């Protein structure tokens, strides 16, 4: 590679290494705060799916569970904002993700096209599967909770 391109490549890679993980962390915060707050406000496009998913749950009505889940997501987002609360964010996210994938099993008629299980996702199914990317981003961010300067030097 010509030296000018090599220098540019090194600069871009350094920039990405420097800002990539924090960008992921803040993106997760924005997504969870934004998507979460829509639920208690009653304007979430995911509301019907969430209501169908939690319909069987005890203690609260489906509508109350929707509000709890919404605020749970807001808390996840807020805990991603500080590096001091990342462990809490990852733990809350892990619990939330378990519930997020439930419709793939409990509501296959909603998450898959007729006769196309397990490959033909509906829009709702795609909405759920995109959470794999959120899980991967959380793994990257979570991998930084014990990072020290010596870890950075070894990498």
Query: Tally the helices: what do you get?
Result: 9
Strand residue content:
under 5%
Let me know the average pLDDT.
93
Shape: globular
Radius of gyration, in angstroms, nearest whole number? 19 Å
Give the SSE order as H and E letters. Answer: HHHHHHHHH
Low-confidence stretches at least 5 residues in length (pLDDT < 50)? 151-155
Kindly, what is the distance between the CA atoms of the first and last residues, rounded to a whole number of angstroms? 23 Å
Helix content: over 70%
The helix/strand class is mainly alpha
Biggest sheet record: none
How many strand elements?
0
- Structural domain count: 1
Explain how this protein is built.
This protein is mainly α. The chain has one domain. It is 74% helix and 0% strand. It has nine helices and no strands. The longest helix has 39 residues.
């Amino acid at each position: 590679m010509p030296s000018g391109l090599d220098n540019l490549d090194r600069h871009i890679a350094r920039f990405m290494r420097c800002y990539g993980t924090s960008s992921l962390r803040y993106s997760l915060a924005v997504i969870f705060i934004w998507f979460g707050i829509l639920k208690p406000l009653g304007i979430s496009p995911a509301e019907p799916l969430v209501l169908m998913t939690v319909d069987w749950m005890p203690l609260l009505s489906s509508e109350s569970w929707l509000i709890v889940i919404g605020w749970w997501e807001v808390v996840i987002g807020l805990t991603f904002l500080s590096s001091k609360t990342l462990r809490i964010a990852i733990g809350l996210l892990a619990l939330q993700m378990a519930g997020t994938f439930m419709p793939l099993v409990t509501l296959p008629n909603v998450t898959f096209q007729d006769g196309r299980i397990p490959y033909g996702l509906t829009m709702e199914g795609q909405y759920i599967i995109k959470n794999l990317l959120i899980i991967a981003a959380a793994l990257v961010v979570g991998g930084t909770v014990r990072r020290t300067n010596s870890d950075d030097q070894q990498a």
